[in-house]
Amino acid sequence: MNKHLGQQTLLELFACRQELLNDKYFIKKTIIQAAEVAEATIVQDFFYQFAPFGISGTLVITESHINIHTWPEHDFVAIDFFTCNPDLKIKAACSFLIEAFQARQHIQHDHKRGPLDVIEKLRG
Q1: Which active-site residues does the annotation give?
Q2: What CATH code is carried by the domain that includes residue 79?
Q3: What's the rounded Cα separation, in Å, for the pair 44 and 65?
Q4: For residue 40, what are the domain limits?
């Protein structure tokens, strides 16, 4: 039995190709492709381009969401996967994103969310 309600993966991409990080079409297409690699079910997307640069986006998936924010001025991308489906292929999606953004370095953190033992104890 799963002991948590969800899984969150934080992916930080460093030294990425700068021109990709301010291209809203590329960002949207790439996040959608990452969702497909993960075998997630896409519900809706929203992407916003900041002035003078940077993009934030959210892809709502039936399993929860994928978020992205870019800092072109720092060649940096932060991506957040949150899912309640442990069968999604998040590691494959992260590998895809590392390659797509041509990141020279990355950090990936995985976190369990919503521990059921705490929830059940407090629901008592």
Answers
A1: 64, 69, 84
A2: 3.60.90.10
A3: 10
A4: 4-14+27-123
